[in-house]
Structures
1.
Amino acid sequence: MSAPLLSIRGVKTFYGNIMALAGVDLEVREGEIVTLIGANGAGKSTLMMTICGTPPPREGQIIFDGRDITRLATHEIIRSRIAQAPEGRRIFPRMTVFENLQLGAAVTEFVHFDEDLERVFTMFPILAKRREQRGGTLSGGEQQMLSIGRALMSRPRLLLLDEPSLGLAPLLVQQIFGAIRNLNEREGLTIFLVEQNAHHALKLAHRGYVLVNGLITLQGTGRELLERPEVREAYLDGGRVPRD
Amino acid sequence: MGERGRVEYFLQQFINGIALGSIYGLVAIGYTMVYGIIGMINFAHGDVFMVGAFLALIAFLALVAIGLTAIPLALFLVLLIAMALTALYGWAVERIAYRPLRGSFRLAPLISAIGMSIVLQNYIQITQGARVKPLPPLVTGGYTLLEHDGFAVQLSNIQILIVLTTFVLMLAFSWLVAATRLGRDMRACEQDLKMASLLGVDTDRTISLTFVIGAALAAVAGIMYLLYYGVIDFFIGFVAGVKAFTAAVLGGIGSLPGAMLGGLLIGMIETLWSAYFSIEYKDVAAFSILVLVLIFLPTGILGRPDVEKV
Ligand SMILES: Nc1ncnc2c1ncn2[C@@H]1O[C@H](COP(=O)(O)OP(=O)(O)OP(=O)(O)O)[C@@H](O)[C@H]1O
Ligand SMILES: [Mg+2]
């Protein structure tokens, strides 16, 4: 089997003296959807951010596409074609939808901007209607679509999605998960997905990891994990309380 | 002085206020841009303005020494030279005093900025001397707009030059921020620095360029100050800096139109205060406004109430 697209080895990340990741090993192969599930505060978002070098890990190594990116600056990591739709969406509030998408395309030097814009507007037609509206005035669902669309504008080889379904109505969750599946199946996009919505995520993903207090405690295919009693108990039947 | 004379006196002060306010506005932009992006008050910015004025003076004397005496050409060259060299100072200040402290505790860059301000003042004081440096009036003449009761309203050529230059620079700068890639990157950094980096924006470079542009604008202000007053010393940056900072706060720190508006208002208030009350207390007026604005209108006239950077 070929080398994984992303490989994380023994990564430890600290906030000051507090250790948020305690030695994470994980890999994502080309063409996969891999999901990471875990309780609030487990360190999921920290791992997503650590991959992008903000903050960088204190120990361990991150290899992307055969290249060690552990010590690169964030913008250099992003320019190696990793895109993230981060937790909280982080839409630029005083820029239009169009400008937000333009910023997403910056790493491509705008060579296929019109084509990529068209693709995002086809995927999320509401964004085309809101084109000149300021990001800060979009609804939560629209912001989430914009956040994913913005990440796609860079034509990433690896897409990091941090809780894309957070705070969305069930119908929208379906729509977003449908879009993720399409991206993977039709375009072969590799996706690393963090979700609290473990049921959805594990059904969608090829493989999954469970993160507890900064450590991977379980891994397997989506189906395997769905059937593990400890997963069912902690993340599925346990009456997950949605945040916010 | 009759009724008419009063009107003319006021008009004259109004014109003077706009010219002075333009200078403050150009400096205020540097404060506001840097604050917008990294949330710090660059206390050394007033001194960068002062360095700009000195560089302009030196450049002018050097040009005269090599025999270039055509004043419009000399002024244009001085403008370019001073802008470029002052931009270098702005860049160096950020690199040396602020970048190493990024991610440090909030007061660290502020203290470093005050240190940088003192360093620049002492550096100019030692290398250029503590006494005031004069420049013979280069741009002379003007127009008499009104004359009545023996009181004439004058619009001098130097005032026209100041206001026009400021206007053109403001247009160019607004265009840069609104319509260029660098401007978009700057706005992105201002709104969410981390997200900007997550989209591949080189935030360190963008911050550097912000200092460079702010310093270049301050250099223009320095040249205008030099031409307008004809004398400079190593201390002008402190007083002008506080006023420009007040202008930025009054207009709404972080807001570019606010900086310009604040500059004009402060220039106007200072001029009118000197004309009608007391010239000795003109600086006190600016400081008092700063205090009052901070108490009663902390977000300024055009500032956003949703201050994200605490
Ligand atoms: N900027 C920060 N400074 C200090 N501690 C932080 C910071 N960000 C996260 N932490 C801490 O690191 C731990 C992991 O946080 P993280 O955001 O990665 O969790 P998460 O798994 O994404 O949780 P959630 O499901 O709630 O999003 C938490 O204990 C959190 O309090
Ligand atoms: Mg999280």
2.
Amino acid sequence: MWDYSEKVKEHFYNPKNAGALAEANATGDVGSISCGDALRLTLKVDPPTEIILDAGFQTFGCGSAIASSSALTEMVKGMTLDQALQITNQDIADYLDGLPPEKMHCSVMGREALRAAIADYRGEVLEDDHEEGALVCKCFAIDEVMVRDTVKANNLSSVEDVTNYTKAGGGCSSCHEKIESILTEMMAERGEVFVPAPVKGKQKKVVPVKPKEEPAPAKVAAQAPAAPAAAAPAPGKLTTVQRIRRIEMVLEAIRPNLQRDHGDVELVDVDGKNVYVKLSGACTGCQLASSTLGGIQQRLMEDLGEFVKVVPVSANAPVTIAGM
Amino acid sequence: MSDIYLDNNATTKVDPAVVEAMLPFFTEQFGNPSSLHNFGNRVGAALKKARQSVQTLLGAEHDSEIIFTSCGTESDSTAILSALKAQPERKEIITTTVEHPAILTLCDQLATEGYTVHKLEVDNRGRLDLDVYKSLLSDNVAIVSVMWANNETGTLFPVLEMAQLADEAGILFHTDAVQIVGKLPIDLKSASIHMLSLSGHKLHAPKGVGVLYLKRGTRFRPLLRGGHQERGRRAGTENSASIVALGKAAELALQHMEHENTVVKALRDKLQAGILASVPNAFVTGDPDNRLPNTLNIAFEYIEGEAILLLLNKAGIAASSGSACTSGSLEPSHVMRAMGIPYTAAHGTVRFSLSRYTTEDEIDRVIVAVPPIVAQLRKLSPYWSDNGPVAEPEKAFAPVYA
Ligand SMILES: Cc1ncc(COP(=O)(O)O)c(C=O)c1O
């Protein structure tokens, strides 16, 4: 069963202000059909002062939905409408000494009902900017809609990016499989291939991670308009990790050709403009090696839109790239 | 007054006789059954006896058809993955929309790996259309996996007939029988079922032990390879204490089978009649004429299941719900949705599942406790006015869905 605080239980077992107000002059009806919660909030507002004199609720929903509704009505009584508009869903959750992550949407519903009721009183049309999906990350209560919006708006391409932008996946990490599948799907939509990072420690060894730009706060990221996906992004626009991913993708695309000739190529390191690769099998030492490397370099420059130098590393004699 | 436990489809109390039978296997009977010495031999003999008692409960032809596993979920996974591995050229799976997640989640994963999963739909009483089923049987199908009894509604599927159809078409048939074993008689030697899963903790054995029945001659690929335990079909040193316990529980289940289908069934029917007589806007979900004797699933319209459970719990009554909120997901139970139960009712479904420990006094107390709880929550509901649903509930309260 849920880990409900005593305050939640108290408001559930003995809800305050249950029922519709007879003399209400503001009504807010909101709900989420898929999660089975719906709330009607009725307010009695004193017109000259805009003070909320009384509040009542009717809720179809689970224990915490009822508790959140009850808490909300207690909180708003005596406030002016403008004060009430300042209430966030976190305030409602705090008033209840916290809600389990799966239940945060109940407090969101409370805030939405309040906004709807005030809009109703003022004769305004409420803009619906809130949507929610199934929870992806339970540690930080991040849902699927948030993850998808953020991936889309920022062209994210790794689990690490998603964690930096939304916090999802930054805790116990058990949702990484789910995040990977979202990335796979969304990257396919924009014509890219999701390349999963290897084991974390290993990745650190192979790919020196440079200090990153400050990640944008989640809220802003989710609401920012989607940047048009540039076919060949200008250099410097990619983060280190994104750049390495792209390099890996280009190599991945070339590998089948090499493998057909019983060779292979592997990314070893990226340091500034130098891309260190290891050729193996039939590629090493053969006369074709230098032209192979030249080809790889060409492909990389086209894709990244910047100058890079492909440097082979191997136990064998170093190969110089023709023409370089 | 002690609490009333009506959540036996979730798990059951371990029978005291079962506890007694298993305890020595933690202490003096600790040997490894694979060992040659006496410590091992005695445990080996106990496992053999347990295997035979499960064989008897299932009506299996041979005791070597019983493979002990760690749970129902493992048995389910083993069955499906074995069929796919053994027949790599077959890329289709037939199952239903109302299976337990132990099957559905696995099938959804397999669908992402290139397999075609046919999920048979159910009607509003949870019944399958066998003509649709027949039309799907083909040489591309690796396995049919259909549950025998539904865990939420208790509805029974015509598994014997479906198994025969699959067998005649040369297709492997598996059934998740976790909810039915111990509640209704089974005779596998006369059935065409190739594989069957059961789980100990649903029949008064401990959690963490299960069985995969594998009909002799069925092609099989193990999930866990390693030692020669379970004749190489499930490697890993046996959980001897729990296996002995399951053997004892199987023996007791057979003894109580008649009680289950007379006394327990009558109590369930009394509970159903009692609640429906005093609570308006409530109905039984699933197929009431064709279900497990211990299961009752009622939808209470216009209120939400978790809230009902919390108030029941406060009154000392343990039940469960298909409500979204109890599962941590946002959607109400996939079983209720599959049957087309409207959202205003699907969220308010409550499952009462009885056992041989349930008493008439308990049922009487529940019949008294439920109506005021439902009334209390309906008083809070925007869909409800003084003594009935508001006129045209969906129109009178049409919230902006965010
Ligand atoms: C129909 C069904 N299948 C499978 C399972 C899973 O069994 P176990 O908990 O032993 O893995 C359950 C129990 O929850 C069940 O009801």
